[in-house]
Specification:
The chain is mostly beta strands and about 120 residues long. It contains no helices and eleven strands. The strands form two sheets. Strands 2, 4, 5, 6, 9, 10 and 11 form a seven-stranded mixed beta sheet that branches. β7 (about 70-75) and β8 (about 80-85) form a beta hairpin. The chain is globular and about 40 Å long. It starts with a strand and ends with a strand.
């Protein structure tokens, strides 16, 4: 079984910053990419950012470009999301997930961490 544990969520004022971490553990699994997603109340889950594990290439949703940065630490099996210039509309539960191969979707999910941005 693969476990993903997110941490780092919390309450921050608009314009502030937060950093999220997601540590992966468990049985050996394919890891083509890891991603961060979020879901706000009453809204569908949306992809925030993703990173290709092998070469570190990244991709971002338009609404976070220039504000959020995804990174990884291979040795620690951990992916990070640095969030700057936070806005109230960034308030959501943030999830990390693993995409085992280029042919698969995101299969393994963490439990989520709440991020609340006050105005």
């Amino acid at each position: 079984q693969v476990q993903l544990v997110e941490s780092g969520g919390g309450l921050v004022q608009a314009g502030g910053s937060l950093g999220l971490s997601c540590a992966a553990s468990g049985r050996t699994f394919g890891r083509y990419a890891m991603g961060w997603f979020r879901q706000a109340p009453g809204k569908e889950r949306e992809r925030v950012a993703s990173i290709i594990w092998s070469d570190g290439s990244t991709d971002y949703a338009g609404f976070v470009k220039g504000r959020f940065t995804i990174s990884r630490d291979n040795a620690k099996n951990t992916v990070y999301l640095q969030m700057n210039s936070l806005k109230p509309e960034d308030t959501a539960v943030y999830y990390c997930a693993v995409r085992p191969s280029v042919l698969s979707s995101y299969v393994y999910w963490g439990q989520g961490t709440q991020v609340t941005v006050s105005s």
